[in-house]
Design brief:
The protein is 26% helix and 19% strand. With 236 residues, the chain is of the alpha/beta class.
Length: 236
């Protein structure tokens, strides 16, 4: 499995998978132009590429998968089936679109009263209107390959389980042939692969973002076979 970060760094061998890293810790004030350049990386082999992302990276992976026919399987960890605008922490009360297409902004959930606390994501979701959610919903049914949505119910960062439910409902409504919606109790924002230390997954530990260590360990081992199965489809 060849797993490439957005910069092209190879972190695994044999299938072609592009990793969208979370941008939640970046102070980003200009929207990203949605383009397929990253999907044309010269180390990607085969007819399609798989995408995997965490948090806002998961949202990005779902969006890119819905836009480009060269994308096969998509895995979203604690991501979103709905686009969010990006909070402008330098201008209180303002937010900007996270993405543009051909220079035009894509609709996203408006960030209300942005600050540097996690509550901004939960509050903005709770206050969003039905029309706003509909306009910001990613057309995930257009993803060509399998879709795996992984989230914890005790997410202290943003309501990923609810945001993934929007994607699940849309996939089901359009009879998408292959998708999984996995939600884990006692699991927070971080869902790790198996066989890694569960550092930061217990209350009181540095980096804790919800859940318990036992919940994180269970989620790690339970979801992983679905991820492998999804990316195995890239073998053609």
């Amino acid at each position: 499995m060849t797993v490439l970060t957005r910069s092209g760094k190879n972190i695994c061998q044999s299938l072609s998978v592009l990793l969208y890293e979370s941008v939640s810790n970046r102070s980003r004030y200009e929207p990203d132009e949605l383009g397929k350049g990253e999907l044309d990386h010269n180390r990607v082999q085969g007819e399609s590429v798989g995408l995997v992302g965490h948090s806002l990276g998961g949202m990005t992976a779902l969006l890119a998968g819905s836009e480009f026919s060269s994308v096969g399987a998509v895995v979203s960890y604690s991501g979103s089936g709905v686009l969010y605008d990006w909070p402008d922490f330098q201008r209180e009360g303002e937010s900007k679109p996270s993405f543009t297409r051909d220079g035009e902004p894509l609709s996203g959930i408006t960030i209300r009263d942005p600050d540097r606390t996690a509550d901004v994501w939960h509050q903005s979701w709770q206050q969003a209107t039905e029309a706003e959610i509909e306009a910001a919903t990613i057309p995930v049914e257009q993803i060509e390959g399998p879709v795996v949505l992984v989230a914890g119910e005790d997410n202290e960062i943003w309501p990923a389980a609810d945001l993934h439910t929007v994607a699940r409902d849309r996939l089901a409504a359009h009879d998408h042939p292959e998708f999984e919606h996995l939600v884990y109790e006692d699991t927070g924002h971080t869902v790790l692969p198996p066989y890694l230390p569960m550092k930061g997954t217990a209350p009181g530990e540095e980096g804790w973002d919800g859940g318990t260590k036992a919940g994180a360990a269970y989620a790690a081992h339970d979801h992983w076979p679905r991820v492998i199965e999804a990316f195995e489809t890239l073998r053609g």
